[in-house]
UniProtKB/TrEMBL annotation:
CDD domains: ABC_6TM_LmrA_like. It comes from Glycomyces harbinensis. It is found in: Cell inner membrane. Gene3D superfamilies: ABC transporter type 1, transmembrane domain, P-loop containing nucleotide triphosphate hydrolases. Belongs to the ABC transporter superfamily. Siderophore-Fe(3+) uptake transporter (SIUT) (TC 3.A.1.21) family. Keywords: ATP-binding, Cell inner membrane, Cell membrane, Membrane, Nucleotide-binding, Transmembrane, Transmembrane helix, Transport. Pfam families: ABC_membrane (PF00664), ABC_tran (PF00005). GO terms for molecular function: ABC-type oligopeptide transporter activity; ATP binding; ATP hydrolysis activity. This is ATP-binding cassette, subfamily B. The keyword Cell inner membrane applies. Residues 37-316 form the ABC transmembrane type-1 domain. GO terms for cellular component: plasma membrane. It is a multi-pass membrane protein.
Length: 591
């Protein structure tokens, strides 16, 4: 469900860093803990074996100087070199596998979410930004979920061990060092949230750039025909520059974190030297302890900068989780699989009763109390001026949006009470625009009816007048038809969409502007297809061209979100002014 405290994707404001992402990161990583631990253990073993190597080298030298056989130490040395190398390679490899597995887990969850988002959510989102969240943001988790956590924990243990030793060696120098450790801690508390926030902004800028690119490709021909390339390039360039600037800002904080860790340790080094020197001079401490303390401090520099780097990386991961979680918190629908018509048999009845609806709380009402019924087999045409709310009727029947008030019933049951899968399973829907997806013609036809037989496919190809198209395409049904079906004509796209809807053997067929892009011959043929379908099922068609629906069983005239008249063509010409005007303007009858 929507979390109103979370900024929607694409929104300009970004929430301040929150603690929840750490829990989420753990939630993702814990399923892959075994691999992570194996990887960590192998890396650790590699490190230990690396430490043994100098000892064996010493053994080789001793053996040489004692004039003994070199076989044993050389075998050890070879085993240590090969074993150490293998362990050092396998450790990170296993951790990277765990990292990729974490990314896969997150992507699977996100894909499920994205595809099931409610239509209303997608209306206000930018697809390019969502793509960026799925690809780029999830990728940021890879390192964080693998090497960062293990490395950070190892470094933290080493630092704690070193600090314990320092306290044991000399409490005064320990206190001196701790003042600097406190300084590092406070500085990190200040810097780390800024790294996270800067990374969120940087990732958002990447998302914005993706959105702009997606926007261009979704209307590529229009951009070219409008000569808008330069303008669009400038916008993309600006977005790329913003992404660069935001990236630089994140790098600035990361660099500052490195310095802020390094400097206090160096200062601590000098302070220990000063205070320790004075204590040695006063006899309060021996030189050996001072040297041991200094060596310890020197040794800790590595783990400290390692820990700070891990914490910085962790912030980028948390930023990614922040953006991923924003999507996970959007409203989604109940799962709907690839469904075919089920439920009852025969044509489905549809009743609208006093339905009001608006697309958003801040938007005007589109339906002001729509009432009509389409009671089973036959053809019902929805006509009326542009923007009157005809397409919205279909969106409500499909439950893309919930009606604000009133009731919509299918087969006498309120659609809110239908399992979504079953409701959509009985409907065949031909959208107004872009009804074809990238892929082959066959994939497009069977996407709503994956189990359709070859005979069924052949039948709808014939019914939707696609035989000629299939014949001329190089690979017939297996031919790719391009992004949004760009290799097809507008009429061909619509016929493919109609064939797809018919293949589902729907109990209710919704055709939106189904004949608007057809030539006269095909329009007449499809009018016949509609009438044929109406013999078997309930067909609702939104039509601008009245010629295609004059023989409809009933025509519902919409005007400004209300049904103003219902009747046959002849009845409406006789009784309804608006319909008569529409008919007259399309030369069907004298005004
Ligand atoms: N997703 C949406 N978000 C906000 N408003 C929308 C949305 N879809 C449609 N509208 C608005 O709702 C109103 C009715 O739209 P609808 O598409 O139902 O009209 P229509 O009668 O089918 O028009 P046309 O004949 O031009 O297709 C229009 O004013 C439109 O701007």
């Amino acid at each position: 469900m929507t979390d109103t405290t979370t900024a929607p994707p694409g929104a300009d404001s970004v929430d301040p860093p929150v603690k929840a992402p750490i829990r989420r990161l753990w939630g993702y990583a814990r399923h892959h803990l075994r691999l992570l631990l194996i990887g960590g253990a192998l890396s650790f073993a590699g490190g230990i074996v690396g430490l043994v190597q100098p000892l064996i080298a010493m053994d080789v030298i001793d053996t040489l100087s004692n004039d003994e056989s070199l076989t044993r130490p050389l075998v050890y040395l070879t085993a240590v070199v090969i074993g150490g190398g293998a362990l050092s390679a396998l450790g990170p490899y296993f951790m990277q596998i765990a990292g990729q597995d974490v990314v896969l887990t997150v992507r699977r969850q996100l894909i499920g979410r994205l595809v099931r988002l409610q239509v209303a959510e997608v209306d206000r989102l930018k697809p390019g930004d969502l793509v960026s969240r799925l690809s780029s943001d999830t990728n940021l988790l890879r390192t964080v979920a693998s090497t960062t956590v293990i490395g950070g924990v190892t470094d933290a243990f080493m630092i704690l061990g070193g600090i314990g030793l320092m306290a044991w060696l000399d409490p005064v120098l320990f206190g001196t060092t701790m003042s600097m450790v406190a300084l590092v801690t406070v500085t990190m508390l200040f810097i780390m949230p800024r790294i996270q926030s800067a990374t969120v902004h940087s990732q958002k800028a990447l998302g914005d750039m993706g959105s702009l690119l997606e926007r261009i490709f979704s209307a590529f021909r229009t951009v070219k025909a409008s000569g808008a390339e330069d303008h669009e390039i400038a916008r993309l360039d600006e977005a790329a520059t913003v992404a660069r600037d935001k990236g630089v800002k994140a790098s600035f904080w990361e660099a500052l974190a490195g310095v802020a860790a390094f400097m206090p340790v160096n200062i601590a080094f000098l302070m220990v030297l000063g205070v320790g020197g004075a204590r040695v001079a006063s006899g309060a401490m021996d030189v050996g302890t001072l040297i041991g303390f200094l060596l310890l401090l020197f040794y800790l520099m590595g783990p400290i900068s390692g820990l700070v780097a891990s914490l910085s990386q962790l912030q980028t991961g948390l930023a990614a989780i922040h953006r991923i979680e924003e999507v996970a918190n959007l409203d989604s629908e109940e799962p709907v699989g690839a469904v075919t018509a089920r439920g009852g048999e025969g044509p489905a009845q549809v009743v609208f009763e006093d339905v009001t609806f608006r697309y958003g709380e801040d938007l005007p009402y589109v339906h002001h109390g729509v009432t009509f019924a389409s009671s089973g087999r036959g053809l019902t045409a929805l006509v009326g001026p542009s923007g009157a709310g005809k397409t919205t009727v279909f969106s409500l029947i499909e439950r893309f949006y919930p009606a604000t008030t009133g009731s919509i019933r299918v087969d006498g049951v309120d659609i809110a009470d239908w399992p979504l899968e079953e409701l959509r399973g009985l409907i065949g829907y031909v959208e107004q625009d872009a009804p074809v997806l990238d892929g082959t013609l066959r994939e497009n036809l069977v996407m709503a009816a994956p189990d359709a037989s070859e005979d069924d496919i052949a039948e709808v190809v014939k019914t939707a007048r696609l035989t000629e198209l299939v014949g001329k395409l190089p690979d017939g049904l297996e031919s790719r038809i391009g992004y949004r079906g760009t290799t097809l004509s507008g009429g061909e796209r619509q016929r493919v969409a109609i064939a797809r809807a018919l293949l589902r053997k729907p109990r209710l067929l919704l055709l939106d502007e189904a004949t608007s892009q057809l030539d006269a011959a095909n329009e007449a043929a499809l009018k016949q297809v509609m009438l044929d379908a109406a013999e078997r099922t309930n067909v609702l068609v939104v039509a601008h061209r009245l010629s295609t629906v004059t023989s409809a069983d009933q025509i519902v005239v919409f005007d400004a979100g209300l049904v103003r008249a219902v009747g046959t063509h002849a009845e409406l010409v006789a009784k309804d002014d608006l319909y008569r005007d529409l008919a007259a303007s399309q030369l069907l009858t004298a005004a």
